[in-house]
Amino acid sequence: MKIRFRYIFLLAMGAMALGAQAEKSSHDSSTLELKQRALTFEQKGERLQAAEIYEQLAEKDESSRKVLANRLAVLYAQEGCSDKSLQWASIAAEMNPDPQAYMAGIHSMLGDDSSAIQILKQELSKKNQPMRTLVLHRQLASIYEDRHDLKNARLTLQSATGVLKGTSMESEAEKLLKAFRNKHDQE
Q: In the chain, where does DSSP find H-type helix?
């Protein structure tokens, strides 16, 4: 199964959040037991059972709620539970350094690439720092590539090289386009 860029990004955010939550939360035995049960369910691939337990933890403690929001959004997205995923994603987005890119990733995980593309294009129409511009273009190109829309993926990466010309991210944009060409021009 192909691992998607935005999925890796969201999992990394969730892992960081769980680590931070483990350090900050009280270590009472019931909380630790619930965390262990949830992790066990996740390891077994029983995401909905894990999510139910994470929700119990989130109800017990507001700081846990904020930290677990990302994990719940991803778990529910993986299970195709759009409403619950978007509900938790809206909470997680409040703490995310790039809430729009985060929400686009969740929409894409849910199979709603049209909404993800719309969000990313809207963000790209704004003036952004070079690094954010590169990340947004990469995320958009990744969605197109996953949809097998190689023409728009290529156009997106070409656009990035043009927009970022003369900036600190110019060479990175060129590397992304070159990697894309190497991968797909041989197909």
A: 5-24, 29-43, 47-60, 62-78, 82-95, 99-109, 113-124, 130-146, 150-163, 170-184
Q: For 50-78, what is each residue's pLDDT tens digit?
A: 999 999 999 988 888 888 999 999 999 99
Q: List domains and CATH numbers for the chain.
A: 1-99 (1.25.40)
Q: How far is CA 19 from CA 5, 12, 14, 156, 183, in A?
A: 21, 11, 9, 35, 35
CB atoms within 10 A of CB 70: 27
**Predicted confidence (pLDDT) per residue in 82-113, tens digit:** 999 999 999 999 999 999 999 999 999 999 99
